[in-house]
Amino acid sequence: MDNLKTTAEKAQQAFFGDYDAEGVKTYFKTDYIQHNPHVPTGIEPVLGFLPVLEKAQTTYTTHRILQDGDFIIFHNSYDNAEAFGAKEVVTFDVWRMEDGQVAEHWDNIMPKAEQTASGRTQVDGPAQITDLDKTASNKTIVSNFVNDVLFGKAPEKITDYISTEQYDQHNPMVKDGLAGLTEAIAYLTSQNDMFIYKKTHKVLGEGNFVLAMSEGEWHGKPHAFYDLFRLENDEIVEHWDVIEEIPSEMAHNNGKF
Predict the structure, then answer these.
(1) How many Å apart are CA 181 and CA 76, to the nearest integer?
(2) For 121-163, how does the pLDDT look when each residue is reduced to its tens digit (9 = 90+)?
(3) Cβ contact 45:37 at 8 Å
(4) Which of 123, 116, 103, 94 has its CA nearest to residue 36?
(5) Alpha-carbon gap, residue 217 to 20, rounded angstroms
(6) How confident is the model at residue 176 (pLDDT cuts 50, 70, 90)?
(7) Which of 22, 90, 115, 246 is the most buried (most CB within 10 A)?
(8) 71 phi/psi in degrees, rounded to 5
(9) How far is Cα 144 from Cα 164, in angstroms, rounded to an integer?
């Protein structure tokens, strides 16, 4: 496993597994930049958070870990996670590594759904990274899909990107397949409550997995959309996401993205 991934896993374990202040000081930079809206920037708030996590016995499971240059992407779930808004939550955590430490952090968090339209969970499915030689082309496919379909510039191109044979869905509200996605879009549109994507800030990937970090609106309020796609043979065949409202006031001036 890549050294940066190993270091990131050690940082994750120190923070959320061992609740270890010395470990956090080892693996997080003192001027750590925070984009979680509710946590002030710097290492001190992280250290201050440790007793809260330990008291709650917060635990985590990493379902996927990807690397794109200096960025490490975790697809995690947390239990006893009331500090994050619910007993069980699903997250994407994105860390920028610098000199072997965590230098910057972005995340999106949502409560775990009890039931899903597809019968899949928000985190199950394949995790093995393949097609490393296709990282760049897969990122381009996802970028173009976001621009054409999610931004609504050319929605009729959806079958250029998403496989008509297989589209495994992990969004709790959407059924499997292209038909499931089309049905969900039609319903949300009929309720005048369709997701509106306005800007994509990052597209990060490794091999057959690509994460798009976007902002827009839902329910008439600003939201962050983190969409993870798995690709096979130049087509999107699976989708996971975490959607979170962006609060009007944050605990820092770094912005959500």
Answers:
(1) 24
(2) 999 999 999 999 999 999 999 999 999 999 989 989 999 999 9
(3) no
(4) 94
(5) 38
(6) very high
(7) 90
(8) -100, 135
(9) 17
How far is C-alpha 54 from the geometric centre of its chain's CA atoms? 24
What's this model's pTM, rounded to 2 decimal places?
Answer: 0.96
pLDDT for res 194: 85
Radius of gyration of the chain (CA): 18
Amino acid identity, position 70: D
b/e for 96-127, b at 16 or more Cβ within 10 A?
Answer: ebeeebbbbbbbbbbebeeebbbebbbbebee
Residues 242 and 224: their CA atoms lie apart, in Å, by: 8
SS (H, E, C) the chain: CCHHHHHHHHHHHHHHCCCCHHHHHHHEEEEEEECCCCCCCCHHHHHHHHHHHHHHCCEEEEEEEEEECCEEEEEEEEECCHHHCCCCEEEEEEEEEECCEEEEEEEEEEECCCCCCCCCCCCCCCCCCCCHHHHHHHHHHHHHHHHHHHCCCCHHHHHHHECCCCCEECCCCCCCHHHHHHHHHHHHHHCCCCCEEEEEEEEEEECCEEEEEEEEEECCEEEEEEEEEEEECCEEEEEEEEEEECCCCCCCCCCCC
One-letter amino acid at 139 equals K
CA distances from 60 to 23, 50, 82, 200 (A): 17, 14, 13, 28
Residue 125 — left, alpha, or beta (φ > 0 → left; ψ -120 to 50 → alpha)?
left
Nearest by Cα to 158 from 178, 129, 183: 178
